[in-house]
Amino acid sequence: MPNPLQPQPETALVSRDALLLAFADFLSIDVSAGDAATDTLQTYRRQVEQFLKWCDRHDLDPAQLDKNDIKRYRHWLINVRRFKPATIALKLSVVRRFYQAAVEHRLLPINPALGVKPPREKRDPAERITFLEKAEVEKLLASIPQGVGDHDPVRLLQTQRDRALLAIMALEGPRTVELHRANVSNVIQQGQHLGIRVEGKRNIRIVPLTPEIGQILMDYLQTRRNQGEKFIPSTPLFIAVGNRAGGQRLSRRGIRLIVDRYLT
Length: 264
Fold this sequence. Notes:
Helix content is 52%, strand content 6%. It is mainly alpha-helical.
């Protein structure tokens, strides 16, 4: 009896059993370094079962799918099942690993799920930071260079901006759009402490800053002054850095990219 995990000739059809055996091998050896919890393994199996049922309903052989078929599966997840982006990301990652197991067992030449990405998460990136534990916030901020002694003015400005931006988002909780709209004139004195007057969709409020975060923000603004920037009331509080958009207001997309850079 032939071993279904043996490499198949190019003209031979790969059976579903062979694909599932390769995936089972992946589950037992690779997931969580071979020590996955039962719930984790069940989640992986359920996602693959759902994918294979979708293949059956559309009369598709999972061993013959191409990238466009995986995109059609994604379309079904989005528009028919209406799953959230995070759920779709999980399902696609399992399908991608299902096919990667087949490639590693030389059952298939390529992984058709590679490069098929989930829809963009529309949740405000500020929320991803707000829910971090204190120790996670400290680790996040520690991952950003201090910039002290950096002789590259662009890199110095970028690191100080990132530290100020993420510290305020993580510990004070303003939304992305609020920091995008804020100007230097919105930094106000509240007694002995600083605050930022921010404007959301429906209201205007003051975001109080701790002395430590206030100092981080002041250091960033002072570096901008030292590099020759002249402030007027409409000067953006956070600016882009670099040759193309340097000095312009940091966009919401720019804030999202900064968050992604340090959280992933």
